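Lab notebook: predicted structure, single chain.

Context: the supervisor wants predicted structures on file for every construct in the current expression panel, including those that have not yet been purified. This is the next one on the list. No modifications to the sequence; it matches the entry in the shared construct table.
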Amino acid sequence: MPSPPPAGTGLGAGALLIATILLLAAVGFGVGTLLDLALPLAMAGAAVGFVLGMVLVYLSFRDR
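Prediction complete. Output recorded below exactly as produced.
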């Protein structure tokens, strides 16, 4: 019989996803500010952050 997942797994996955999205949106905004394209690059960074965050969540929590 498999053991139940540890408590807080969903919270950790959500936090990792949100942190990745916010981090890459901030990086995109920072680079975009230098290039006078702050909003488009922040949105692109958030999109990339979502995809990367999903990959990180999958890799981190696939065995649980």
